[in-house]
Amino acid sequence: MLPVCFRFDGDFLVHYMSVDPDATVADICAAAREYVAGFRVPERAGALQLTFAGEVQPPDRLARDAGIGAMDYVQVDVVSAA
Question: Considering its fold, how many domains does the chain have in total?
Fold first, then answer.
């Protein structure tokens, strides 16, 4: 498991969560949403997008294939209505 820093769309705090290197970007986004939506930020329907190192990552990419490592920072945004 990798400790990863993330900020979720609409929140000003950076959070930490454990990420399996074999988790997909979609899995990471869903975990981040579950961690903050309804608690730190209002629930919002929509597709999620993960940006790492300035690049939007495809939802089916694995964390390890995206190069996400321990203590790396990712941004998770709500980008469109579902």
Answer: 1
At residue 49, the 3 state secondary structure works out as: strand
Res 54: pLDDT = 97
Spacing of C-alpha 14 from chain mean position: 11
Distance CA(34)–CA(67), nearest Å, equals: 23
pTM value is 0.91
Collect all residues with Cβ–Cβ distance below 8 Å to 42 and sequence separation of at least 6. Answer: 10
Q: Which CATH number covers residue 74?
A: 3.10.20.270
CA angle 71, 63, 17 (to 5 degrees): 45
| 47-52/73-80 β-pairing | antiparallel
Range of the domain at 65: 2-80
